[in-house]
Amino acid sequence: MNIKDLLREQEYVKENGRIANNEYQESNNVSRQTATISLSDLLEKVIFIRIGKAGRGITYELPKLTNDNNVNLLVNTKVRKNENQEKE
């Protein structure tokens, strides 16, 4: 996932409060499996947190931070770190 896509998903969640797998599939025109992998990757990078235990009840939200600048800082830091690791 590139930075542009990541920021688009972050903005979607900021506007709507959360995103579900099926919403991710529709907004990115991807399969259920690809959406699940992408959302899992975002969880691992602590860009989203998972709400719910399993199945259709799972949604993804932004972590609760003090303000939007902290969210952008967190996203940009995680993305840069991962890009640097991929170059090595």
Overall description:
The protein is mainly alpha-helical and 88 residues long. It has one domain (3-87): Orthogonal Bundle (Arc Repressor Mutant, subunit A). It has helices at residues 3-16, 21-28, 32-44, 68-87, and strands at 19-20, 49-51, 59-61. The protein has a 3-stranded antiparallel beta sheet with strand order 1-3-2. Helix 2 (21-28) crosses helix 3.
Short précis:
The chain has 88 residues and is mainly alpha-helical. It has a single domain, classed as Arc Repressor Mutant, subunit A, CATH 1.10.10.
Overall geometry: globular
Distance N to C terminus: 18 Å
Strand element count: 3
CATH class: Mainly Alpha
Give the spatial strand order of the biggest sheet.
Answer: 1-3-2
Order of helices and strands, N to C?
Answer: HEHHEEH
Number of domains: 1
Main structural class: mainly alpha
Helix content: 55-70%
Question: What would the CATH topology be?
Answer: Arc Repressor Mutant, subunit A
- Tell me which CATH architecture applies here: Orthogonal Bundle
Low confidence ranges:
none
Q: Which band does the percent of strand residues land in?
A: 5-15%
Rg, Å, rounded: 13 Å
